[in-house]
């Protein structure tokens, strides 16, 4: 419809989901999670709350970095981002910028939001 919608998510559900993700990703206080998704999208919930609830760091991407793969990659390298989320089409652009070589600290990439190629 193009109109924002809201849903109520119980605290227990969010806490359970964050605990599951932390176990699945083996998240530690040494991790740095990339926060680049607008808070109007559900993916931003885990980008912000997962690291905050498990002692890791939130690395908030600068405004405009999403539009420029080279800038985003440079920033991810500078801050040693270890966990990131991309839609497949954006990940493809980012990897093309680096000839398929991700930043060295990056150990986990989550993909969703559209079909995988």
Describe this structure in words.
- This protein has four helices and four strands, in the order αβαβαβαβ.
- The chain is α/β, with parallel strands linked by helices and 117 residues long.
- The protein has a single domain (28-111), classed as 3-Layer(aba) Sandwich (Rossmann fold).
- Strands 1-2 form a two-stranded parallel sheet. A two-stranded parallel sheet has the order 3-4.
- The longest helix is centred in the N-terminal third of the chain and has 15 residues, at 11-25.
- The two termini are 27 Å apart.
Characteristic key phrases:
117 residues; alpha/beta; two-stranded parallel sheet; 4 helices
**What gyration radius follows from the Cα positions, in whole Å?**
15 Å
H-E string: HEHEHEHE
- Biggest β-sheet description: 2 strands, parallel
Residue-averaged pLDDT: 91
Structural class, judged by helices and strands? Answer: alpha/beta
Relative strand content: 5-15%
CATH class category name: Alpha Beta
CATH architecture: 3-Layer(aba) Sandwich
- Number of distinct helices: 4
Tally the beta strands: 4
**What distance lies between the first and last C-alpha atoms, to the nearest angstrom?**
27 Å
Task: Write a brief structural summary.
With 117 residues, the protein is an alpha/beta fold. The protein has helices spanning 11-25, 43-53, 69-78, 88-97, and strands spanning 32-35, 57-60, 83-86, 108-111. The mean pLDDT is 91.
Lay out the secondary structure.
Elements: H1 11-25, E1 32-35, H2 43-53, E2 57-60, H3 69-78, E3 83-86, H4 88-97, E4 108-111
Parallel strand pairs: 1-2, 3-4
Helix pairs in contact: 1-2, 3-4
């Amino acid at each position: 419809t193009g109109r924002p919608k809201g849903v109520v998510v119980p605290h227990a559900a969010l806490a359970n989901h964050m605990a599951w993700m932390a176990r699945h990703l083996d998240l530690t206080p040494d991790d740095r999670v990339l926060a680049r998704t607008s808070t109007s999208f559900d993916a931003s919930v885990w980008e912000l709350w997962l690291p905050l609830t498990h002692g890791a760091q939130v690395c908030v991407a600068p405004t405009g970095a999403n539009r420029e793969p080279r800038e985003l990659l440079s920033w991810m390298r500078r801050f040693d981002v270890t966990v990131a989320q991309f839609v497949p089409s954006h990940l493809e652009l980012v990897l093309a910028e680096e000839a398929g070589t991700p930043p060295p600290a990056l150990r986990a990439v989550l993909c969703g939001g559209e079909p995988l190629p």
